[in-house]
Structure formats: C-alpha cells, structure tokens
Specification:
It contains 1 helix and 10 strands, in the order H-E-E-E-E-E-E-E-E-E-E. It is mainly β and about 110 residues long. The longest helix has 6 residues.
C-alpha cells in the first residue's frame, strides 16, 4: 500500500515509525522535549546547559555526544554519580520525571 502525506511538518514526519518502532529524533538545540519523541540524539556544538521537558511519568533516552564541549544538567537525582562526560564518546542518558523530580541514569559507550 501507499501512504500520501499532505501538510506534514518535519517534526511530525520524524515521529512516523517503521514496523511500529519509534525513530530517533536528532535534537538541534539544548531543549530535549518529549514532544519530539522519547528517543533523541544530541551532539554538542558549544558548551551547553541542557533542559528536559517531560510530563510526569515520561522518560527520555538521550544519546549525547559532548564532542569537546561541556554539558551542564539541571537538578537531577542521579542513580549513582552524575555523568562524567568523555569527549567525543556517545553517552546514553535516561531521564524520568517523577512529579517535580527528575531522575537520571547514564552510561558511556565503550
């Protein structure tokens, strides 16, 4: 079958899934918003303060590459230590909203 799209924005198009799987959204600014999907990627192009926009009960998985820059996080209750980012490595960061509290977990790629 065919799918015809009329008046679809780039964000809406990026949310379409294949085989019922959510596609990765590439964030181009420092606001990581669940409205753009729960799987996002971000490579820093300057020192940055990240902002996470989630509703209560939502989670976001972020693949973050700091390149050679510094990333600052908002107040997050980390499971373990806060991220210690390694230049040009991909880091998986999972953020969850629990009421007014952000909870986070992270891991660096080998």
């Amino acid at each position: 079958g065919s799918l015809v799209l009329i008046s679809v924005t780039a964000v809406q198009l990026s949310k379409l899934n294949v085989d019922n799987k959510e596609l990765w959204y590439t964030a181009t600014n420092n606001t990581i918003d669940a409205a753009n999907g729960t799987k996002q990627k971000r490579t820093l192009t300057e020192n940055s303060t990240l902002v996470f926009t989630l509703n209560d009960g939502q989670d976001i998985t972020l693949i973050l590459n700091p390149a050679t820059f510094t990333a600052m996080f908002p107040a997050i209750s980390w499971f373990g230590a806060a991220p210690s980012l390694i230049a040009s490595k991909e880091h998986t960061v999972v953020i969850s909203r629990d009421g007014s509290l952000l909870r986070g977990w992270w891991q660096v790629a080998a």
